[in-house]
Amino acid sequence: MKAEALFWRQCTEAVTADGSIDAQRLMDLVIATYRVHESDYDEIERSAETLLRENHALTGNISALSQAFDESEPRPVRKTPWRASARTNSPSCRRASSSPGT
Asked: Which of 56, 38, 35 is nearest to 46 (CA)?
């Protein structure tokens, strides 16, 4: 609910029988709303802190893996795509190319 609409609803709930505003009732309604949202904000803040800790841990893990990868022995680069080499080196292709009729 939008803030303005909520406030007007609280105002109407704070109207007394004679049509005046009960300031104490209005204040209680407004403070109760703040308290409800305050617990929501606390929960959001805890969730954000947890996400930041997890993100920091993952960043550290990625850095460590990246460094380990950089320090490892270089691997030869494939000149042909995996699928092309798999097709030419598959047993069925080798049998077909080594058959007596070819």
From this structure: 38
